[in-house]
Write a structure and sequence with these properties.
Length: 430
């Protein structure tokens, strides 16, 4: 097959590599000329994705994968076009921001030719494929969906850093607008993906047809919103436990010892491209989902709540120096999308604190580019806030931060023995 992948980011590029490695001709489209040039040189434009560099270099050298900025070069005559351009959410209104996907869809439609299967993989509000993309593609291309081209929705279900592993591990969900579109989508994904055996699943691992684009859209939103709501519940339990002298981690461990409880862990923040964003996409079409809204609001409030606890313990924080440990949204991943570092730094600065940030994955120049003053382990600070559960921080001790008066451990990742004698707030513990 001739396959076009639109948007060669941290999901799109590994997908393009996966498709090409399965024996197909792939052209990736991206508006970033520097990224395109880097890919065509056989080099990964971002670090951290397991096995990407070696596979990319091999496929570019063999001619099975190349990148371009021109839709006219990639779209005409394609058997399949897969779109993974981003959809964001407005921070104030919580409404979806379709500007990048609208632009990608417009450019795609201008060059769409008969016989193509178009599959969207970006997480979308329920109904978007049918009610937004179908009429847009038809109006611009002059073609009819279900006759001249076919439209499907198949959500990506992978985590950056382990995309190739996750593509094998999880069923590939599909939903299309016509029976022929369903057939084409199934044949496509069965031809480009390989699946691990999963005896734990109710059906064999592979391509699962959910019957409609709406069901497939909702499945991605539901599985990610579940995590945010579950973390919100864990944070609620953690706040109560800490106020009543209870160790919530022992409670959660006890609860999860039977098969009907799967309580997550509390934490200072929920970050990444997915979990903080997708509940708001869900709410855009189900505004009565109060449980989803409440959980999202509680999770977003955790940095402020923990900084307020520090203020209660120390008194005024004005004039103090603080280090936030971790810029990344989760341990071991060099990514700051919706990271808790931003609201944590803001909450400290609003109290007159001189804030520094440390992260073993980022250089001082990279931290400054994010708007932070870097901190070097061994420098002094009055307060330390552990925001990211990097492995390095598990062996951190007061001697590494001379003068530290308080550790706010937002991930329950520090060693209590190493911090004996220094006041320590642990999220979810008294």
């Amino acid at each position: 097959m001739h396959i076009a992948v639109v948007a060669l980011g941290k999901i799109g590029l590994p997908l393009a590599v996966q498709f090409a490695a399965s024996g197909h001709e792939v052209i990736g489209v991206d508006v970033n000329q520097m990224a395109v040039d880097t890919i065509n040189a056989g080099l990964e434009p971002f670090p951290g994705e397991a096995h990407l560099q070696e596979r990319l270099a091999e496929l570019v050298a063999s001619g099975r994968l190349r990148a371009t900025t021109e839709y006219a070069d990639a779209i005409p005559g394609a058997d399949v076009v897969v779109l993974v351009a981003p959809v964001f959410v407005d921070d104030e209104t919580w409404e979806p921001d379709f500007r990048y996907m609208d632009a990608a869809t417009t450019s795609l439609a201008e060059h769409l030719t008969p016989g193509t299967l178009v599959s969207y993989e970006t997480t979308l509000p329920v109904g978007t494929t049918r009610n937004r993309w179908k009429p847009m593609l038809e109006a611009i291309s002059g073609l009819s969906e279900g006759v001249d081209f076919h439209l499907a929705y198949s959500p990506e279900r992978v985590l950056t850093g382990r995309v190739f592993e996750d593509l094998r591990k999880y069923p590939k969900l599909i939903g299309a607008l016509s029976p022929e579109g369903t057939r084409r989508a199934r044949e496509f994904y069965e031809a480009v993906l390989q699946f691990d055996a999963r005896p734990d699943l109710p059906h064999p691992n592979g391509v699962w047809d959910l019957g409609s684009t709406e069901a497939s859209e909702m499945a991605k939103l539901a599985e990610t919103t579940y995590r945010d709501v579950n973390i919100g519940l864990a944070n609620q339990f953690g706040l109560f436990a800490a106020a009543n002298g209870i160790d919530v981690y022992k409670v959660i461990e006890a609860c999860n010892s039977q098969p009907y409880s799967h309580i997550h862990r509390p934490g200072i923040a929920v970050g990444g491209h997915c979990i903080p964003v997708y509940p708001r996409l869900y709410l855009s079409t189900d505004p009565d989902a109060d449980i989803v809204r409440t959980a999202r609001q509680l999770n977003a409030s955790m940095p402020e709540r923990l900084v307020a606890q520090a203020e209660t313990l120390l008194g005024s924080l004005s004039g103090l120096t603080a280090v936030v440990l971790g810029a990344a949204y989760r341990g071991g991943v060099k990514e700051t999308a919706f990271s808790g570092v931003f609201p944590t730094v803001q909450a400290l600065r609003e109290r007159g604190v001189d804030v520094r940030v440390h992260d073993p994955l980022y250089t001082d120049e990279e931290l400054r580019a994010l708007g932070f003053e870097p901190f070097t382990i061994g420098d002094s600070a009055d307060v330390a806030v552990l925001q990211t559960d990097h492995a390095d921080y598990r062996t951190l001790a007061p001697a590494h931060i001379p003068g530290v008066k308080l550790l706010v451990d937002g991930r329950a990742a520090s060693d209590a023995g190493l911090w004996a004698g220094t006041p320590r707030i642990v999220v979810g513990s008294a």
